[in-house]
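Progress report, Aim 2. The chain analyzed during this reporting quarter is listed below.
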Amino acid sequence: MAVTTLVGRSVSTGGGIAVDVEGDRITGISDCAVDPGAPWIVPGFVDLQVNGFAGHDVNAVMPDAEAIGEITRELGARGVTTWVPTVITGTEAQICARLDAVTAAVQSDPVVAAAVPFVHVEGPFLSEFDGPRGVHDRSAVRPIDASEVARWATHGRIGYVTLSPHDDATHEQIAEIVASGIAVAVGHTHAGPDQIRRAVDAGATLSTHLGNGIFSELPRHPNAIWAQLAEDRLRCGLIGDGHHLPADAFTAMARALGPDRAFLVSDAVELAGAAPGRYRTPVGGEVELTPDGKLEYSDTGLLAGSAASLADCVEWVTTATPIGLAGAVMMATRVPGMIIRELTGGAHDAGRIVPGARADLVFLDDFGRAIETFRGTDG
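Predicted structure tokens for the chain:
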């Protein structure tokens, strides 16, 4: 099998690095001399939360395996080589149908199988209140039920479930879900600090888009954001599109979490990648995508989801915050890659450049913009 050698700058050292690839795997890494203006070579980006992209919706009325394939290819062209389809609140039948579509895509398309390690189910066990609930269908929100989660799991590989631990009795349900091999994330919640700590004691290990999916006004302390930032057992996703979190809040949260707990997500929806304009969506109705990438409801101006890819988020963090390129890349690769390896027992190795890992690589310019994606091929 022929060896392909890719050369660029390393964000870890600033020096040159040569990556040897055979088939779909990295087989060797070595230091080398490169031009100071050479592009940076980094692992393919890993997005743990994608609802849709480029006109395709994971949560379509008629779930479609082809749509999962199209999202995979559109994201891959932008440097996002591993992604987790996010199935949102719905009836049990709707959730299972969406899982079936993802499973069909994984089983029929090797490109999807290489990119999609599992599914994230966001809801339906969320806060029923306006604000923390976000755009999730209030009529489908219901109490946590581990037995329902077990039924979902017969339709596809679920990596984690986002829920709100606002009920003091939910810790038993959380423990049962975790015991089944599915991780639990805290999100879309009006839970208090004590309830969040009980959820973590029961096995919750993640926070879904921290700082969003919560009341817009909170007590200055204590509150659920402080509780999650202070809980060392939680790794927290942050939406880095420049609209869900302002730069100062994003920076403060990322610094408080540190490099082992903070990770980037896009939370992209179907209109991500679309041209600016007004659109009508199945959830929420009339929305507007502004020229600066903000997706908002036409009548209220409230956010209607993210229109950014994870590659866009890396660029925003690099250019709009003091975290810089190396930090942005780490948040988009290292931590989410660790989470995927843990939840798949090492079966899906993403987010790092090491021998044996899948050869998903991205070349970046100094502003964090993805220039080119390289994906290893089997054989």
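DSSP finds ten helices and 20 strands in the chain. The mean pLDDT is 95. These observations will guide the mutagenesis work planned for the next reporting period.
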